[in-house]
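Intended use. Records like the one below are meant for learning the mapping from a protein sequence to its folded structure. Do not use them to infer anything beyond what is encoded.
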Amino acid sequence: MRSLCWIPLLILVGCAGHSSGGQSPEALKTAAEHFFHDVRWKDYTGATSVIVAEKQDAFAKARRVGHDSRELEITDYDLESIKIAPDALSGQAVVNLSWMRLPSVTVKNAEIGTDFVYRNGQWRVLRMDGGPFPDLL
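Structure written out for the chain above:
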């Protein structure tokens, strides 16, 4: 009889572990910070790992063709907000991004919406609304 008292508790703990899980705002914020940190420091391999699978090759190729490791400088980013859709399978990060692309030395600043989707247990970049990565538009 005493062991039966633990069953409701185990069910609650088990359900809590399978609720939204990684679909939390904190997990989306972590993914967004990972992506923008990596592009800020030109770790395009790391940034590619946060992008949806169907766009990873195009993103990596565009970085090579554009000589982004030499010619693109992300000077700053500031993650402004995170919002998850009611279905908890998509969300958006809004970031203030500053960058320049050589030969220009003019720093461009923009508030950019970055759409994320939750796939295979992880948040992935689906597209960006502007910025220095036209292949993600």
